[in-house]
Amino acid sequence: MFDRVSQNTGSIDRPAVVDYLKKLGVGGGLLGGQKVNKGADAFMAKLDTSPADGKVTWEEFVAESRQLLPAQLRDGQGRLNPALIPQVFSEIAGTNKSHATRDDIARYVAGRVTGAAAMFAGTIADASSKLALDALDADGDGKVQQSDLEHLVSDINAQIDPSLVG
């Protein structure tokens, strides 16, 4: 995902995020530009951390990436715990499904948006589900398998702390 957003330049800036969100189809409708701008602002605020210089480096992306995954995947120390994947995947996909669709992901996200952001739950869920599908759907079939989530968690853990990979 980093390479797709950065267009292989080594870092991600706000215009690259805007382009990426538009390519994913985020921001349609009357307030489409506003949705894209808010999404780009949120992306940069979350990931452009050290230093906050208008560019997200690979190191910043890796360090903050675990925060982009469901909180239910993190243990008491904030680390991604692979043992929690089956339960979380079941919540996302539904207990009788072997895969999750974009609609499943959007439903899951919308159900967890709270506070002031709740009034934008649909928009947040739409954008988040498109981003998640792009990041997780390894074979491009429009479905996320549990193994896709397992691979992502393993990759993130390997980047952050190789001792977490078994």
Strand order of the largest sheet: 1-2
Give the CA-CA distance, first to last residue: 24 Å
Sequence of secondary-structure elements: HEHHEHHEHHEH
According to CATH, the homologous superfamily of the largest domain is EF-hand
- Number of individual domains: 2
What does this entry look like structurally?
With 166 residues, this protein is mostly helical. It has two domains: 2-66, Recoverin, domain 1; 84-164, Recoverin, domain 1 (Orthogonal Bundle). Helix content is 54%, strand content 6%. It has eight helices and four strands, in the order αβααβααβααβα. It has helices at 2-6, 14-24, 32-47, 58-65, 85-93, 102-110, 121-136, 146-160, and strands at 11-13, 55-57, 99-100, 144-145. A two-stranded antiparallel ribbon has the order 1-2. It has a two-stranded antiparallel sheet with strand order 3-4. The radius of gyration is 16 Å and the shape is globular. The model has no long low-confidence stretch (mean pLDDT 84).
